[in-house]
């Protein structure tokens, strides 16, 4: 959710700064279709989760890891675009903590309760998946690299209460920077990013 909020906020700020949506449409993004395939895979996994994480050898974790590697390849192809390195760092941080915790992003049941999403926990056991996310419920003491997991909370009355990770924050900042530089600053052309 933080990424969607960052993108919307970046577009609004870009417009207020005299930026153009047309420039955003002209962004010379390489391999964009691969990113769309990867995101489609992740959406499928989020909306059709296995009840309890089955560990690194489960097909769902394999698909999730593969989709993240596809996105990293897209980031590498676009590494000269402004903000992309932040997006890549955030994705690597998220992928690291996910792989060290059974392939999903750890989140505590307390954090889900604080934002009103406890009803999305698929089953009451530790290691349960969370509907419509890539999350798995783990207590903090059972989470490897807990400080990279979903620990930052935007509770109500925030319009879209959510929990996010340091990696998500990097991704959101990178997306904000990319959108600002694309909408407001001079037009990017392919020769500048080669």
Walk me through the structure.
The chain has 194 residues and is mainly α. The chain has one domain. Helix content is 49%, strand content 6%. It contains seven helices and four strands. The protein has helices at residues 2-16, 21-25, 32-47, 59-77, 84-99, 109-114, 166-184; strands at residues 105-107, 135-137, 152-154, 162-164. The strands form two sheets. A two-stranded parallel ribbon has the order 1-2. A two-stranded antiparallel ribbon has the order 3-4. Strand 1, helix 6 (109-114) and strand 2 form a beta-alpha-beta unit. Helix 4 packs antiparallel against helix 5 and helix 5 (84-99) runs antiparallel to helix 7 (166-184). The longest helix has 19 residues, at 59-77. The two termini are 32 Å apart.
Keywords:
globular; mainly alpha; two-stranded parallel sheet; two-stranded antiparallel ribbon; 194 residues
Name the overall outline: globular
Number of strands: 4
The Rg value, from CA coordinates, equals 17 Å
Classify the beta-strand content into a percent band: 5-15%
Number of domains: 1
Overall mean pLDDT? 91
Distance between the termini: 32 Å
The largest pleated sheet is described as: 2 strands, parallel
Sheet with the most strands: spatial strand order:
1-2
Q: What's the tally of helices? A: 7
Strand/helix succession: HHHHHEHEEEH
Helix content: 40-55%
Concise overview:
The chain has 194 residues and is mainly alpha-helical. It is built from seven helices and four strands. The strands form two sheets. A two-stranded parallel sheet has the order 1-2.
């Amino acid at each position: 959710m933080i990424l969607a909020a960052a993108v919307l906020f970046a577009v609004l700020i870009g417009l207020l700064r005299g930026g153009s949506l047309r420039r955003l449409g002209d962004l010379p993004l390489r391999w964009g279709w691969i990113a769309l395939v990867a995101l489609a895979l992740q959406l499928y996994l989020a909306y059709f989760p296995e009840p309890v994480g089955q560990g690194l050898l489960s097909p769902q974790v394999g698909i999730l890891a593969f989709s993240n590697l596809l996105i990293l390849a897209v980031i590498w192809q676009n590494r000269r675009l402004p903000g992309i390195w932040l997006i890549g760092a955030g994705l690597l941080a998220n992928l690291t903590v996910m792989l060290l915790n059974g392939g999903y992003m750890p989140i505590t049941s307390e954090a889900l309760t604080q934002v009103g999403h406890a009803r999305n926990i698929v089953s009451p056991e530790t290691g349960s998946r969370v509907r419509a996310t890539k999350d798995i419920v783990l207590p903090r003491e059972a989470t490897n690299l807990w400080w990279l997991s979903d620990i930052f909370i935007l509770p109500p009355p925030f319009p879209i209460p959510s929990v996010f990770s340091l990696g998500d924050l990097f991704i959101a900042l990178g997306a904000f920077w990319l959108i600002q530089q694309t909408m407001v600053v001079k037009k990017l052309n392919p020769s500048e990013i080669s």
